[in-house]
Specification:
two-stranded antiparallel ribbon; 93 residues; mainly alpha
Length: 93
C-alpha cells in the first residue's frame, strides 16, 4: 500500500484495486486476439465482411484495458486507516 503525497494517514488500494485486475484481464485477452489475428486461421473475411474482427476487437480490448489501468493510477481509491467499530459487537465480528 502506498501513501498519497501530502496526506498523512491515507493509503491507496494500489495493486489491489479491482480496476487493475479488470484492466489486466482485458489487456491479456486483447493481446491473445491480436496475436491470433496474424495467424493463418485467425482471419475469416468471408464471415466478417472483409474485416479482420480479431485484430479490431483485440486492439480495442488492449485500449480499454490500458484505460482501466490508467484510471486506477490517476484516480486511486483512498482506504481509510482507522475504521470505527461498534462497541456492541464483540471483537473480530
Amino acid at each position: 500500500m502506498s501513501t498519497s503525497p501530502g496526506k498523512q494517514g491515507r493509503h491507496t488500494a494500489g495493486a489491489f484495486d479491482i480496476r487493475n485486475f479488470i484492466g489486466l484481464l482485458l489487456a491479456i485477452y486483447g493481446a491473445i486476439l491480436t496475436v491470433y489475428s496474424f495467424m493463418p486461421g485467425g482471419q475469416a473475411p468471408e464471415k466478417t465482411g472483409d474485416i479482420n474482427a480479431n485484430l479490431l476487437i483485440g486492439v480495442l480490448l488492449l485500449v480499454v484495458g490500458g484505460a482501466f489501468m490508467l484510471w486506477a493510477r490517476l484516480r486511486p481509491v483512498i482506504v481509510p486507516e482507522h475504521v470505527e467499530h461498534d462497541s456492541d459487537r464483540p471483537a473480530g465480528h
